[in-house]
Amino acid sequence: MGVLHYFNVVGSSPPSKDSAVQVIYQDTEKVSSRPSKVTPHQRALLLRGPREPYVEVSDHPTPSLDGNREFLVRNLVIGLNPIDWKAPDFNFGIPELPYISGRELVGEVAISPKRRSRFKPGDKAIVISTDYRDLRKAAYQEYVVATDFNAARLPPSVSPEAGSALGVAFVAAALCLGVCAGLDFSTIADGPDLLSMVRQIDPSRLPEDVRDECLHGIDKESRIQKGDWLAIWGGSSTSAFMLNQIARLAGLRTISVVDVRKHAVKMATNNITRPDIVVDNHDPQRAIEIVRSATGKRLRFAIDTVGRETAGHLLECLQQHYATEDEPDVSTATPESAHLIGLTGLPKSSPPANVSFHNMPIKLFHEVPELGEALMLWLERLLSRGLLVPPSILGVSEGFGAVNQALDSMRRGEVSGGRVVVRIP
Ligand SMILES: NC(=O)c1ccc[n+]([C@@H]2O[C@H](COP(=O)([O-])OP(=O)(O)OC[C@H]3O[C@@H](n4cnc5c(N)ncnc54)[C@H](OP(=O)(O)O)[C@@H]3O)[C@@H](O)[C@H]2O)c1
After folding, report:
1. Which one, 177, 325, 348, 405, has the greatest CB density within 10 A?
2. Where in the chain is the domain with CATH 3.40.50.720?
3. For the Alcohol dehydrogenase-like N-terminal domain, which residue ranges apply (predicted)?
4. Which of 247, 229, 252 is nearest to 300 (CA)?
5. Looking at the domain that runs over 221-362, which CATH code has it been given?
6. Hey, which of 343, 409, 414 would you mutate to test ligand 1's pocket, going by the most ligand atoms within 8 Å of its Cβ?
7. For ligand 1, atom 18, which residue shows the shortest CA distance?
């Protein structure tokens, strides 16, 4: 049976007494390195039905490569995401059964891509598997298919555990900011201008369900820029951790709504990762008032990482942006549009005039190779230059057999302010 190691992370919640996980010791570098000999069959975790635990098998076919941009990695560490337990519990995002889950990992390259590539056998790579319909790319198996445009080389300064836990949140944050809010990353380590990129691509190549967001989500004149405020609700999530860092690197001012009792100390200790202003979420109406007054009623951009209800709170924060008779100082004849971006839900009602609702277009990452590649090359530069701090690793489990227990901890809300990862020996 796998064991979960809990680190001493300031501000993180320890597991409860009756938790299935054990507190063992602090440890960061235990990833095994053995020569890769790819076998026709492999170990994998299968989901056989909704609301069932994952089952380990040892005779699952090793996935095969297709095209000249795919390569095969031997799995070293899996980063666990909320979708890994939410999909089976709520029966969504499971296109076939048995299903293989898992959205991110660090692996060692076993077979490199056919075409010239920056990935060579033996290299360690961060692999981000947003393409959940392609089971060959899922993380819950010994050998995983990666594409060179959805993977990044792991720099020596980043541990495999940390590398396995940052990719999905990075991509989500970059697409929220770069496409939905139109933030140009070119001033940060020569990052991409995603909005210009998607508008130069032949529209027929953009996935149909995200085409409108890409082409008409925001006017060029309304793009978020240096000095603008960004409000984030759910500031303790890993996505928010990445959003806040990228936003501040671009010169935005961030205001983050979190459970201050849980997260204040940790958030205050690191100057690179702390938001400009932290607001407690305990009393939502009070939090809305604070966001409004702190941003001088000029808030135009807000991102929710929690759900529909808290996205509604952010909508209230944004609506204050418009002029009132009492406060003509913020009045403009035609107020600039405001933008509410949801990672996991938006208010049910239609958006009011001058507010646009945005769903983060995650599909762009794996369906538009040049965009995915631009993000991965940028991630490599950000990590190797130490510009991006990886999320806290709150626990490390060993072996596929430990995944169900670790997901149970997430179900119980015990994983807060960081990620749990699973090493594959
Ligand atoms: N559409 C996409 O492609 C995409 C991509 C990335 C993320 N997402 C979604 O965005 C959301 C955030 O993802 P993430 O990976 O950033 O999250 P995360 O790092 O796992 O953090 C989630 C936060 O949710 C809170 N939480 C955890 N368990 C909870 C519970 N039982 N009840 C209420 N709150 C709970 C915790 O806040 P406290 O610290 O206050 O406990 C935790 O910090 C998720 O819903 C995820 O599925 C979607």
Report:
1. 177
2. 221-362
3. 68-148
4. 229
5. 3.40.50.720
6. 343
7. 237
Distance CA 151, CA 146 (A): 7
What is the Å distance from ligand 1's center to 314 Cα?
17
Long-range contacts of 93-96 (CB under 8 A, 24+ apart): 93/132, 94/47, 94/50, 95/132, 95/133, 96/135
CB contact set of 234 (below 8 Å; sequence gap of 6+)? 240, 257, 258, 304, 305, 306, 310
Report mean pLDDT in 10-residue bins for the chain, 425 residues: 43 36 36 70 98 98 97 98 98 97 98 95 98 98 98 98 98 98 98 98 97 97 96 98 98 98 91 94 98 93 98 94 53 73 96 95 98 98 97 97 98 96 97
CATH architecture of 4-166+390-423: Alpha-Beta Complex (3.90)
Ligand 1 nearest-atom number relative to CA 417: 43
Q: Which residues line ligand 1 (CB under 6 A)?
A: 81-83, 168-169, 172, 234, 236-239, 259, 262, 305, 343-344, 360, 362, 413, 416-417
Q: Where in the chain is the domain with CATH 3.90.180.10?
A: 4-166+390-423
Number of the ligand 1 atom closest to the C-alpha atom of 359: 1
Q: How far is the CA of 162 from the centre of ligand 1 (A)?
A: 18
Whole-angstrom Cα distance, residue 164 to residue 141?
14
